[in-house]
Amino acid sequence: MHEVFGPGGFLEKCIVAGFDRSTVSSDYEYRPAQLEMAELVHDAFESHHHAIVEAGTGTGKTLAYLLPAICSGRRVVISTATKSLQEQLYQKDIPFLQKHFAPNLKVAVMKGRANFLCISKLNQMADQGLLKGMEELDAFRQIKDWAKLTETGDRAELTFLPDDSELWGKLDARRDTCTGKNCPSFNPCFVTGMHQRAQEADLIIVNHHLFFADLALKQDDFGSILPEYSAVVFDEAHEMEDVASDYFGRQISNFRFEELARDADQTLRLLHLGTPSLLRKTQRIRERSRGFFELFPPRDGRFSFLRNEREAFLEQNREAYDALATSLKSTETEFAALTAKPEELTRIARRSFELRQELSFLFESNERNFVYWYERRNKGVFLTATPIDVSQILRERLFEQFDTVILTSATLTVGGRFDYIRHRLGIDHAKDRALPAEFDYPKQALLYLPRKMPDVRDAGFPAKAADEIVQLLELTHGRAFCLFTSYSQMNDLFERVRSRVSFPVLLQGTAPRSALLERFKNTEAAVLFATASFWQGVDVPGEQLSCVIVDRLPFAVPSDPIVAARVRALQEDGRNPFAELQVPQAVLSLKQGFGRLIRAKTDRGVLALLDTRLQRMPYGKIFLESLPRYGVTHELADVARFLGVNGASGRPGAKSASPS
Ligand code: SF4
């Protein structure tokens, strides 16, 4: 590793030789933390143990885990948080490694099936005229042309297609509607191709969703998605608990019933089996599910659905519940009675059976490790059972099954320790290391902590917070993210601030996330008001983002059903949920949020936290100990000096963020 990452090593030589500036940052230089990380990961692969590495932005952690993974000679799964991070790895880092280190390296990218085109559906749809309107017809023609050229069939190549395209929903390669080996297009199928590439690959790049979907399938003995592998690297590992919780839980929604009815109708018509009696059956599923889901209270939000609440619901609505289950059952029976039993209908009947089982699980089971809850969001009602604690599941299914699992992220430690992530994920044995920062935080960032703010729960807080935000924006000349922990706080402060500043002010929810981010990057002096989804995974290097303002410490909402259940479970165990769960969770969120500001060695800017609990409460110390060592001030005048406003220049008398 030293020969590659060390001073004067291969990576530095690549740059001196002047090649590959497009793939490796042109200002590449030897980074001790990167070398250390590569050695730690290499050691884990060689000695077959788990490792947890906290590596801040700028460490160059991708190469520091990819190269040891390649050197191990083992088949390694690399799991990233998002599809765009998968693309980044595949298009930027992998070609560099193939060119200079491992010309024969075979790499496969795997994504969920819904990302790929189903050739069979495309052909059927071309014949059947199931398209609605000119717009859909036009999009369909473009997809058809693209299908002749694409090698992957991955919808990411269809840049014109909106995220929520209804047409794509009719064409994607979801398992639900796939006839597998019986399909005439099985060989040229894009999903078959993806699996074949993965079978032959040394590295398989997935996202956490696909990884845990696979692990959950293995648990239920429903086969698997990924081929055999011997080690895993999780990048952005701080997201593992949330994603694992989703995949080891159960969920049904009104959409799933609608989709089942839609797919059943479409299949019956395509197979020329759409008799009035069968179509009435699918119509009945649709009507009964609509009636059933309307029984849930109309307000949006997430609500617990405890055992007694579910029992009371069933007592009141038993008829609608039974009618829904019966509509599924009788469709299955009717399909089974057909003389011809095409594979497509057998699959639909199986989906119907699974839906019935899940419905009954969600209403009639009472598993101790599950929290039952429902959510109403836009036009959807989602009934969910989520594991309260995934640590035992992951211990058994992941950490005891594989001898080398590497976790890395910029936000894993709380107060310099890995206890929280270890407990939450069930990692009993692993080497861990928090690497030193690559950035000069005391010089690059100033943390402003105003002293004279009311408590965040005080009625006067929003007005005072608006004053502070306006003053900060004037000093930074916009170019800021204002991050909130709830939509209501975001909307309230947005209304209070927008008419008082002259900068373009953007609001989350007014456009898709990626479009809003692009607008922020391309609009001079823009300010963005946003909530959770902008706290992480957002990269705006340079002056365009010069200030991050956080209104309050990002504690998870205590009334949220999952948070409440996790708190209760710890209390019942005689533990301290505030210290062991709520504070660490908020610390990691704050580290993520503030982490948006400094993305490169040349970045400079101001962070502001308007919540004085950080200064007043004993737990504030843990937050300060966990953050990088920013300069700290309580005075706006220092912020002005730091930014060189009004003729002031240079850095203020900033001090280290470590508590005195
Ligand atoms: S194998 Fe399945 S996903 Fe592939 S083309 Fe056939 S039906 Fe579609």
Summarize the structure in words:
By secondary structure, the protein is α/β, with parallel strands linked by helices. The protein folds into 4 domains: 2-106 and 391-434, Rossmann fold; 112-197, no CATH class; 252-386, Fumarase C, Chain B, domain 1 (Orthogonal Bundle), CATH 1.10.275; 441-656, P-loop containing nucleotide triphosphate hydrolases (Rossmann fold), CATH 3.40.50. It contains 26 helices and 19 strands. The strands form 3 sheets. An 8-stranded mixed β-sheet has the order 14-15-13-16-17-12-18-19, sandwiched between helices. It has a 7-stranded parallel β-sheet with strand order 3-4-2-5-10-1-11, with helices on both faces. A 4-stranded antiparallel β-sheet has the order 6-9-8-7, with helices on both faces. Helix 13 packs antiparallel against helix 14. The radius of gyration is 27 Å and the shape is globular. Bound molecules: iron/sulfur cluster. Iron/sulfur cluster (SF4) is lined by residues 118-120, 173, 178-180, 183, 185-186, 189, 191. Iron/sulfur cluster is lined by residues 118-120, 173, 178-180, 183, 185-186, 189, 191.
